[in-house]
Amino acid sequence: MASSEPQPTNKQPHVLLIPYPAQGHVNPFLKLAKALHARGFHVTFVHTEYNHGRLLRARGAGAFDAGAEGFRFETISDGLPPSDLDATQDIWALCEATRRTGPAAVRGSSSG
């Protein structure tokens, strides 16, 4: 007879973290990602190409060295023009672009 209770598994839990791409959201999510990783979670940290570039400029290439297996960074488009360096400062444009492009971009990231 099959048991209806879940069977224990040795599979590492996986968390997909996607901070809202406005100022003030990325660093707290990054801290959360590192804390979860330290507790045994496989972490995929998904952020926008724009924020990826900002972190690289602010912290250097080492900003994305999680230092361990099981911590992965992915980037998605925020739907804003890459030529506009202040695009994310227009909160309404950011909301609309995120609403329009976010779901498909996240589905693409979570399937990998």
UniProtKB/TrEMBL annotation:
SUPFAM superfamilies: UDP-Glycosyltransferase/glycogen phosphorylase. InterPro entries: Glyco_transf_N (IPR058980). Pfam families: Glyco_transf_N. Residues 15-73 form the Glycosyltransferase N-terminal domain. GO terms for molecular function: quercetin 3-O-glucosyltransferase activity; quercetin 7-O-glucosyltransferase activity. Transmembrane segments: none annotated. Belongs to the UDP-glycosyltransferase family. PANTHER family: GLUCOSYL/GLUCURONOSYL TRANSFERASES, GLYCOSYLTRANSFERASE. This is Glycosyltransferase N-terminal domain-containing protein. It comes from Miscanthus lutarioriparius.
